[in-house]
């Protein structure tokens, strides 16, 4: 029989390292088996080395089933010919339009066009735009739609949208600005912010009210009455036709002015030459008379 002193002096059982002990307060059948973990055997030099992981690209290109498929260098060079840098003048919408136009002509058997776009798009970026893509979380862009959404939201902030919306709403024909120049400038504003949210009715009404009285009367005359009483389709057609007519007339006037400038310049040169010949002839006659 053990005495109290013998029990107190008995050495406590040591739990082996790296083994999770049982919880003595819970029944054994309710506990998970002990987990044995292996100690890290790497040296300090190995632990202090820079990691070689974490270089996965943000864009995930889907599996391509076509055999022997690879991008040609000519396509990559085409992408680098007009790169997006994130400059103040750069418009991400214009870049996406240009990129879609180029890549829509690229066809490979058994290769989705979206996969080609995902592979080529990084080559169309440079400078700050490329650094933005490199900072995106690995494998966070799974589709072309994901890429476009992130790209537009990054480089077309809400403040830029607000400024362009205000320019569209407050558009005014400038002093001395022709009708077709005003129409082209207005369309440039709409194109620069395709997500402006204005209906076609609002766009046409804003442009009409921004014109000077002379151009408004011209549109009303072409519409056979009040332009705003016509359908939006008819109004747009009338505006486009008026813009084209003014363009053709202006080109004709410019060509006539240039032609008259050339003729007047030629006449001036001929007059100068005639005057010089007459002076020389007069001098020769006078000199002969003195003899």
UniProtKB/TrEMBL annotation:
Quote the InterPro entries the UniProt record gives.
Answer: Retrotrans_gag_dom
Which superkingdom heads the taxonomic lineage of this protein's source?
A: Eukaryota
Tell me the protein's name: Reverse transcriptase domain-containing protein
UniProt keyword annotation of Secreted present: no
* Start and end residues of each Retrotransposon gag domain: 120-213
Matches recorded under Pfam families: Retrotrans_gag
Alphabetized, the UniProt keywords read: Nucleotidyltransferase, RNA-directed DNA polymerase, Transferase
State the Gene Ontology terms under molecular function: RNA-directed DNA polymerase activity
Residues covered by region (Disordered): 1-26
